[in-house]
Amino acid sequence: MSLHTADPRAHPDPDLESRERWAAAIYELMTHATDQSQDPRERAILAGAAEDALALKHAMVAAGDGLLDDEQTEVLQSIYDLWNVNQDRHERLAALVDDDFHRRWATRTASARPERPA
User: pLDDT tens digits for 16-69?
Assistant: First the structure.
């Protein structure tokens, strides 16, 4: 898999932007919860979730900038979909750590939250 020269027109997919926004929102929640948690096991889970979210955010930016070819972008979107399935579990844990922050965060980021299949 090789990268090619950036072409902002290469992937004008609005899903990439919305997925990038959601990964950034999850990163914010997970880093806050990591900082607030007193339990080492929780901190490790939340820190791992934050790292995953940040890595996906950066990868979505790269895909949106045309730094990934079509096949790489499709693989990235599949990885994102698998990652997103686990976010409910991580989000519940973050809410247990700091429910007030979670409620404010959920209200503020509601428009970034992807729709769930019925």
Answer: 888 999 999 999 999 999 999 999 999 999 999 999 999 999 999 999 888 988
Task: Identify which of 26, 86, 33 has the alpha carbon closest to the alpha carbon of residue 53.
Answer: 26
Residues 78, 32: Cα–Cα separation, whole Å: 27
pLDDT for 48 = 96
Pairwise CA distance, residues 111 & 104, whole Å: 13
Rounded to two decimals, the pTM is 0.84
Alpha carbon of residue 44 to chain centroid: 17
Which of 33, 26, 85, 106 is closest to 60 using CA atoms? 26
**Distance from C-alpha of 59 to C-alpha of 80, rounded to nearest angstrom:** 10
Phi, psi of 4 (to 5 degrees): -120, 175
